[in-house]
């Protein structure tokens, strides 16, 4: 926990700042901030397999590029969503398909306010697609480029959000090591 770290290092100004932003130490009042766990969707394919026809790309726009696909903003059941679509040139690549299925199998088990929410996937037809909530704020890298350095309070809020997401990933029963945490 950031506050515990600040206390350990006796960084008084940081301790005050974190406390004023609602930071709690381990064991303080018997608890620290821990979002109430909500069970993720059942890991049963029929719950989350998306029929590609349900995805509306009529006003779609490209929002990013990943290692094996592009991320497009589209609409699903009336909601803006981010669709990670495997590039057609890679859609027969066994390793890419394996990575994609691995990501789906992982994401389907996760639910936390600081982890992008998995909504469903197209795994039975090509192109393979991963559908998540759409984050309209863009990525941190873009934010820093456009707006410059964060003020300390915002930096702490962002750091605490990231730490909460990471703490969730590291907690039982789904222990996930991210290995690629970055601002974009
Ligand atoms: N849910 C989302 N909402 C809005 N934008 C997104 C979303 N997911 C990804 N993006 C945009 O697309 C970019 C690339 O996405 P992401 O990092 O998830 O791809 P990736 O496949 O994991 O990349 P890599 O494998 O190369 O690390 C992000 O930096 C972000 O700008």
Automatic annotation (TrEMBL):
PROSITE patterns attached to this UniProt entry: PROTEIN_KINASE_ATP, PROTEIN_KINASE_DOM
UniProt protein name: Protein kinase domain-containing protein
UniProtKB keywords: ATP-binding, Kinase, Nucleotide-binding, Transferase
InterPro entries reported for this sequence: Kinase-like_dom_sf (IPR011009), Prot_kinase_dom (IPR000719), Protein_kinase_ATP_BS (IPR017441), Ser-Thr/Tyr_kinase_cat_dom (IPR001245), Ser/Thr_Kinases-Pseudokinases (IPR051681)
Domain Protein kinase: 57-184
GO molecular function: ATP binding; protein kinase activity
Top-level lineage group: Eukaryota
Positions that bind ATP: 84
ATP-binding listed as a keyword: yes
Highest classification ranks of the organism: Eukaryota, Viridiplantae, Streptophyta, Embryophyta, Tracheophyta
């Amino acid at each position: 926990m950031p506050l515990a770290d600040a206390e350990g290092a006796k960084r008084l100004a940081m301790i005050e700042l974190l406390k004023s932003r609602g930071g709690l130490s381990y064991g303080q009042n018997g608890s620290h901030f821990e979002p109430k766990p909500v069970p993720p969707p059942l890991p049963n394919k029929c719950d989350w397999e998306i029929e590609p026809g349900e995805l509306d790309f009529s006003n779609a726009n490209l929002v990013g590029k990943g290692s094996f696909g592009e991320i497009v903003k589209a609409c699903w059941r009336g909601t803006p969503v981010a669709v990670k679509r495997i590039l057609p040139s890679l859609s027969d690549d066994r390793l890419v398909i394996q990575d994609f299925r691995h990501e789906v199998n992982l994401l389907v088990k996760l639910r936390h306010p600081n982890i992008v929410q998995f909504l469903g996937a197209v795994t039975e037809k090509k192109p393979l697609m991963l559908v998540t909530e759409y984050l309209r704020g863009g990525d941190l890298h873009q934010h820093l480029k456009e707006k410059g350095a964060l003020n300390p309070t915002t930096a702490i809020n962002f750091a605490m959000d990231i730490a909460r997401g990471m703490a969730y990933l590291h907690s039982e029963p789904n222990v996930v090591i991210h290995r690629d945490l970055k601002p974009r």
